[in-house]
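User:
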Amino acid sequence: MSFEYVLAIETSCDDTSVAIVRQDGYVVECLAANQDLVHQPFGGVVPEIASRNHTLQILPLVEKVLEKSEFTIDKIDGLAVTSRPGLIGSLLVGVVTAKTLALIHDRPLIGVNHLEAHLLAPFLYDDEFSKPQDLKFPYLALAISGGHTQLYLVHDFGQYEVLGRTVDDAAGEAFDKFAKRLGLSFPGGVQVDRLAKDGDKNKYALPRTMVHEDSYNFSFSGLKSAATRLVDSLSDSERLSERAHLCASFQEAVVESLMYKLNKAAQELSISRVVLTGGVSANSRLREVSEAWAKKNKITLFVPPIRYCTDNAAMVGFAGVQRLIKGESSDQNLSASASSLPSDFKEASR
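Assistant: Predicted structure:
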């Protein structure tokens, strides 16, 4: 069966997203509804509120994507949906919706791992962003978000080796918790990035955890604790006057920790193609440092546009269509899982 176009659904956390994607990675249409305002009073995502809002937004988004793309459901060859990992209530909304559409319209269905989708996001292109040149396997991929910080060796579609991961907090989580400690609004990572532009990144000495350990793993809990002690040692007026410097110093510690392990893997494995993906890859300082690093070390760096770095259905559609083409599919027993399946990724032996 031919799979030229798929309709994809993403509801792994608090962003509801629907897209139509062509099998070569061309994004016909991708729309999203975020919930930042409803979660802002709580300083973080409230799972029950997130799932409830997904139920309100998902079907109108499906209808709007079809309308804007001038597609009918008859032109859709299959459906892809994020089924893992993520907030279980949020995932269930997307999975049940996709299963229902697949059943009603008699279309093949595939459940997609959210992290796999991020790893393949650099293949996406649209009318405003050209198809990536020279992106081929194998490549290193650093996936960094609020819930995940992992380093992969991507061998091929469906063949992913986990080289390293965070042993505690994810980088995005550390950004958000630090921002909350400073009294910044949610989502915190964006606020830290904005304020850091006016700060001195060398003003405060903060730890770069695990950089001297012989592994590709990350750790951000020590940095978070040190930053918390620093903020708590300041008066209210000092926190306000030093806010930009605090943000710049914290951000620099996160970026240097990420880049140290990325560089270590690239050099030791002799890999010249590198991908940054996930919500934190939208950070302007990380992009600046990684681009300079890539140029210096003759690395070909691929970073998707910000709209494809954050959670989006387009990347889910591309990952899904690759699996559908290979003959894989999910049946009506497809369920949501808060964790990846053991078969999704191979653990590195080192």
